């Protein structure tokens, strides 16, 4: 039989003090006299006692857990976002509970599930669900929205890449290379719509003709392939901008299907600068949307909101927008 782990009561008995006094020592309270503190510390060392973090958190009415809601595990953008969140929240003593709402039973409210876990804060990598928007402030922990979203709530902080600026960078890059008929494979959602509109407007302003699909669904490899096959049916298209790197891989597949060489016959640009884009086999020109930094700043904001002493006196919410940059690799070149 495994040896029973020592409890706080065992420490109190060994030290000859009350359980409450042991708790004060564990909390680092200055109200404990030096002799009593030494007795408790010696008892802890002799017994090999390890305090329960869960019990301490519950006693303080905190779980040290942050809920993260996303809507597509296959979107590599979330990988860097979660890495950034962990970089900011981990050292502050918080752990992440990540839920993809697309995998949750439709009868289950993911927001209610998170709140029932008593999370100390929420990060939304998706549009805020209606069940969250309908809740009063008193029923909500601090919330930070990560990424460009179609739905906004003035109660929540937000951190995002400047998607419009990033799409304009792509348009300028392609036009400067000499492309005059450019295709675009679109996606639904807040960021997808912002990128679509900004790219089309900038490319048109610079004198290029834009051919795009009417696709507004998930930003998948299959969607990129289907959209590119449609766009390549138009005459004169020499470059395609995809809504993200995953869709751009689908575009590369469509180019291969049609016997087009990249970048000799067709230039391809993605967005997000994921590990997929940087893979040596692909070498995709893309836009670095600072997803890791978005995670770091979202996590940092949340740490401040979850610490009552760090709340700004004004209580005003923040809306941070990070500047993107183009990452030029092997998939773009001047048209032949």
UniProtKB/TrEMBL annotation:
Keywords: DNA-binding, Transcription, Transcription regulation
Protein name: LacI family transcriptional regulator
SMART domains: HTH_LACI
Domain HTH lacI-type: 6-60
Organism in which the protein naturally occurs: Tsukamurella pseudospumae
CDD domains: HTH_LacI (cd01392), PBP1_LacI_sugar_binding-like (cd06267)
Matching Pfam families: LacI, Peripla_BP_3
First and last residue of the signal peptide: none
GO MF: DNA-binding transcription factor activity; transcription cis-regulatory region binding
């Amino acid at each position: 039989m495994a040896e029973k782990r020592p409890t706080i009561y065992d420490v109190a008995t060994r030290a000859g003090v009350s359980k409450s006094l042991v708790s004060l020592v564990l909390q680092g309270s200055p109200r404990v006299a030096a002799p009593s503190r030494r007795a408790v510390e010696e008892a802890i060392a002799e017994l090999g006692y390890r305090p329960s973090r869960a019990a301490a958190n519950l006693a303080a009415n905190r779980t040290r857990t942050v809920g993260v809601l996303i809507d597509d595990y296959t979107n590599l953008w979330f990988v860097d976002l979660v890495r950034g969140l962990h970089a900011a929240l981990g050292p502050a003593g918080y752990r992440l509970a990540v839920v993809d709402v697309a995998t949750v039973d439709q009868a289950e409210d993911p927001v209610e599930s998170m709140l029932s876990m008593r999370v100390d804060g929420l990060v939304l990598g998706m549009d805020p669900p209606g069940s969250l928007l309908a809740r009063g402030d008193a029923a909500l922990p601090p919330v930070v929205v990560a990424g460009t979203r179609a739905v906004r709530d003035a109660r929540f902080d937000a951190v995002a890449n400047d998607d419009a600026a990033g799409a304009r960078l792509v348009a300028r890059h392609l036009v400067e290379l000499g492309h005059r008929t450019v295709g675009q494979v679109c996606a639904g959602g807040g960021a997808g719509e912002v990128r679509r509109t900004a790219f089309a407007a900038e490319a048109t302003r610079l004198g290029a003709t834009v051919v795009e699909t009417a696709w507004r669904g998930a930003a998948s490899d299959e969607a990129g392939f289907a959209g590119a096959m449609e766009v390549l049916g138009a005459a004169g298209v020499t470059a395609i901008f995809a809504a993200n790197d995953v869709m751009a891989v689908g575009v590369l597949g469509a180019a291969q299907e049609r016997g087009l060489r990249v970048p000799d016959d067709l230039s391809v640009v993605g967005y997000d600068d994921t590990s997929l884009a940087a893979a040596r086999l692909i070498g995709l020109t893309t836009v670095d949307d600072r997803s890791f930094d978005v995670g770091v700043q979202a996590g940092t904001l949340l740490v401040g909101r979850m610490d009552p002493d760090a709340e700004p006196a004004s209580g005003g919410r923040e809306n941070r927008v990070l500047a993107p940059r183009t990452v030029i690799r092997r998939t773009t070149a001047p048209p032949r």
